[in-house]
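tool_call predict_complex ligand=alpha-L-arabinofuranose
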Amino acid sequence: ILELDGTSTGIKIQPTMYGIFFEDINFAADGGIYAELIKNRSFEFDEPLTGWKQQNTKTLSHNLDSGFLTIYSDDAKTNKNYARITINNDQNYVLENEGFRGIGLHQNSRYDFSFDLENVSGNISALNASLIDEKGAVISTVPVLIKGKGWQKYTAVFSPSKTVEKAQLKITFTGKGVVNMDMISLFPQDTWKGRKGGLRKDLVQKLHDLKPGFLRFPGGCIVEGRTLAERYQWKKTLGNVADREYLINKWSSGFAHRLTPDYYQSFGLGFYEYFQLSEDLGAEPVPILSCGMACQFNTGELVHLEELNPYVQDALDLIEFANGGSATKWGKIRTEMGHPKPFNLKFIGVGNEQWGEDYIERYKIFEKAIHAKYPDIKIISGSGPSPDGEFFDYGWKELKKLNAQIVDEHYYNSPEWFTKNAGRYDDYDRSGPKVFAGEYAAQSVGVVKPDNKNNWQTALSEAAFMTGLERNADVVTMTSYAPLFAHADGWQWTPDLIWFNNLQSYATPNYYVQKLFSNNKGTDLIRIYENGKPVKGQNQLFASAVQDTGNEETIIKIVNTNSREKLIEISPKNIKPGKNLTKITLTASQLSAENNFQTENIKPAEERSALKKGKISVVIPGNSFIVLKLK
Ligand code: AHR
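tool_result ok
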């Protein structure tokens, strides 16, 4: 028998309780949510022809090749490179782009094709752009006339005659001569909110369905960079997308088994777009900035304390970018980009996953400067990657002394660790900093193992653990699973919350666990007990309960990690249970079961019934997660 006590605990479930961690890992941004379909559209990769192929070009010789492409650079620009294309043999020179693991196209959808071209010499009068399927058959073609001299933007629209997962773009030219080309781009018209050059709709929809309380961006380790020079610099991600400077993605070197050298950040999804996405999702924006320490798993390079000022200034300027009036320097840039209204930033993260004295020294400087100018901004500080380790303890001890506001904890661990740690926060100091469980995920094999699965066992253990997060909502105020996205053909890290390919995406069981918690977070914590004690693993049962005052609903979450079904009786007191019971069940036939592109077998099933007075009897299937809503 579980006793449900509706007496007020005085503990609010923060609107930020369940959020999203976004990092450009596993092709989450370029090749993923950022809907650009052309890889290396402006020849900016270190190897500028990455993604491009020139048919009938072998020798780069005027006499022997049908044509050839060389890279020119304009050092005065941030987007330096462009292609100079020399056509010797009319119609025979073909330039192809392979997309990000192919180009995904939907039959009869419309795609905006555009490029910048300068007609340099000769008589090139047109080009023909085609989309071709895996066998080379043309599925859409558009002729584009070349007019006049000087750089000009050209546009056309494709409408493919069939759906293809791995198409390519093919360009042929009419005439002979020399042209310069840059920013060769292809976007679906059907993006999230129909924005030109916007985000992939199916992927954003999945985020929207989570009803996230916050969006943390842009990572993760890419905040820090392998070296300081390769850290994420938000100021370089603003303005015209064609002028944003490319950066090799930290995850291009991944881990030994997943080298991805063709992984770059175009920053088409930059800080403005992250803020805009947060707004679209109704989520608090939570930017995390470099604290002057490169990733400690790479070089661990440090900025000297005397040289930290530009990093601190980046944080101050970011707050002005988000919240400043249009007359301020950075508020003006936001306004010019199309958002005069401030984004109302409330949180900022200093460093991603850093630890030790080096971190604390730098954190102190940031904290002083940020709070001197913006006392209301809440600062998130890091505690390192290992929740059971020495670094972690050191960080917490120091951060407590410094009255840090929110500490970001990361844990990737076994399903057993998650179920065992459902009581993790029960004894946390109630007067200390709040906790942001900023990255966590159960690992079916081991941390950063390539064969980790998003199976039901991992999701169930996370659900059990999350009842502990919720029971401790007075300490834990923000939580997010990580990583968020993974491209089936381009990932570096597994498990991940949402998997996608060029055409489709599917939600993992872990996603549905997140969704059930987030969509049913309520507003006020109440207590659910067994024999007077919190339900945190006795007989392999885990539970938490909340009230949603706006909705006048009581919501109970119960996780059964035993393989046998349990009949539970819930005895409510100090509560008006209402008349209706909604029972949402998430379970699977086996612990090893997974969802995939073909089927989402593991997804919530909802049933409604009338509530009788007195005790509530519910059957909790073996290995299941149940949400009960009383109204
Ligand atoms: O989520 C993947 C990585 O794990 C993040 O980039 C990093 O913060 C953590 O080590």
